[in-house]
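Fig. S4 source data, part A: sequence.
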Amino acid sequence: MCGRFSNKETPASLAEYFQADSHVDFAPSYNIAPSSRIVTVTADTQDHRHLKLMKWGLIPSWAKEPSIGNKLANARGETVAEKPSFRTAFRTRRCIIPASGFFEWKTEGGKKYPWFMSFKSGEPLAMAGIWEAWRSEAGESVETCCIITTDGNELMQPIHDRMPVILDLDQWQQWLSPKERQPAKLLPFLHSHSSDGMQAWPVTRELNRVGVRDDAGLLTPSEAVC
């Protein structure tokens, strides 16, 4: 799973990195949790990319209540093309969720300690996502998304058995294109990213204070479990 990530980028830096139009405003956040408003990258039928803000936690278009989104922050890559909650979005509404890195918890001595994973280069991760547009009975429209996960790579396995799907540059266009509607061509993308070029270290358990702690100090290596 992926239950927390960070994004220390600016709208301008993400727009440049993903070659996307940006008409959104957001501040860096180091402790992003489900239900947060997060930045995504989408594409239109002309393959022009756009930064959009969405709520993290997918609400399927057929859902009666938005509360279902609280349970759908992640979609397993192994079943995303089949599960009723995800299959339509996987076929027609895919996105990239940029992150500076993501967090996962490792159990040591009966306690869980958070670790931070990122690229050694410092470049943003392009996490694979899907999105939906849900409309309430009152006519309110809400765009939501979730992160697709897969088996952990060699770096992740000692920490946790799952990780986000991270897309390479040469996969972005096909993944984002609304014109690509054949799951069989997209499922091969849903594998763990190579450990080469990635890094991980333990961080403070202050990360658990969602809504209270959100600063760059959360990414500082901790000696708590070293």
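Fig. S4 source data, part B ends here. The longest helix spans residues 11-17.
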